[in-house]
Amino acid sequence: MLTNAQMRRILDTFAEMFPDAHCELTHSNPFELTIAVLLSAQCTDALVNKVTPNLFAKYKTPQDYLNVPLEELEQDIRSIGLYRNKAKNIQKLARLLLDEYGGEIPETHVDLVRLPGVGRKTANVVVSTAFGVPAIAVDTHVERVSKRLGIARWKDTPVQVEETLMKRVPQEEWSLTHHRMIFFGRYHCKAQNPQCQVCPLVDLCREGKKRMKEKVKNN
């Protein structure tokens, strides 16, 4: 298990490497952010950002999404994976917002996870990014980085990873750490080709030490 000093070093390294880390999904309000995060499930932010400019120009309110046939909305997001299911969820979400929340995105995690297509991770992103509530959303990058660095166990579920991070990271740093870990995983500690040879945390990293040993052996 990492010591408090090692954990502090990890957090400070994230901050040094990616001081400007932020949510990369294009949006201008909580409603657009929620739609964008819903669309990003099993899909890259870059692909979502190609689709949302036209989508958000066409659909401004929950009612706008309900004013078109499902098939039309499907076509508008067709290039995104699972587009049929996501289109259905968007219309169901829009209906629930109008029926129970006055057409506005709710600000609490409890209410957000009631929305169709919005799971724990999406809710954490929305409360953190849109409403400034401290939260850590565990996506594939955060999970991978946490496990490689030994913050979490290999067998941990995303919820267990989230709970561990909430214990090990000071609450006032949750949201920033979430974004920095995503950037660290997306641009440095990649799934297939992590940059272990130039990583300042390689001495703490289980995966990195293994890869560097194999590299030495193969040379």
UniProtKB/TrEMBL annotation:
Spell out the InterPro entries in the cross-references.
DNA_glycosylase, Endonuclease-III-like_CS2, Endonuclease3_FeS-loop_motif, HhH-GPD_domain, HhH_base_excis_C, HhH_motif, Nth
What cofactor is this protein dependent on?
Answer: [4Fe-4S] cluster
| Reaction(s) catalysed by this chain's protein | 2'-deoxyribonucleotide-(2'-deoxyribose 5'-phosphate)-2'-deoxyribonucleotide-DNA = a 3'-end 2'-deoxyribonucleotide-(2,3-dehydro-2,3-deoxyribose 5'-phosphate)-DNA + a 5'-end 5'-phospho-2'-deoxyribonucleoside-DNA + H(+)
Record-linked SUPFAM superfamilies:
DNA-glycosylase
- Annotated [4Fe-4S] cluster binding lies at C189, C196, C199, C205
**A Gene Ontology molecular-function term?**
DNA binding
- Gene3D superfamilies tied to this protein: Helix-hairpin-Helix base-excision DNA repair enzymes (C-terminal), Hypothetical protein, domain 2
Q: At the top level of its lineage, which domain of life is listed?
A: Bacteria
**Cofactor notes:** Binds 1 [4Fe-4S] cluster.
EC number per UniProt = 4.2.99.18
Gene Ontology process terms (BP): base-excision repair, AP site formation
For this protein, the record's PROSITE patterns field holds: ENDONUCLEASE_III_2 (PS01155)
Keywords annotated in UniProt: 4Fe-4S, DNA damage, DNA repair, DNA-binding, Endonuclease, Glycosidase, Hydrolase, Iron, Iron-sulfur, Lyase, Metal-binding, Nuclease
Q: What family is reported?
A: Belongs to the Nth/MutY family.
- Role played: DNA repair enzyme that has both DNA N-glycosylase activity and AP-lyase activity. The DNA N-glycosylase activity releases various damaged pyrimidines from DNA by cleaving the N-glycosidic bond, leaving an AP (apurinic/apyrimidinic) site. The AP-lyase activity cleaves the phosphodiester bond 3' to the AP site by a beta-elimination, leaving a 3'-terminal unsaturated sugar and a product with a terminal 5'-phosphate.
Name of protein: Endonuclease III
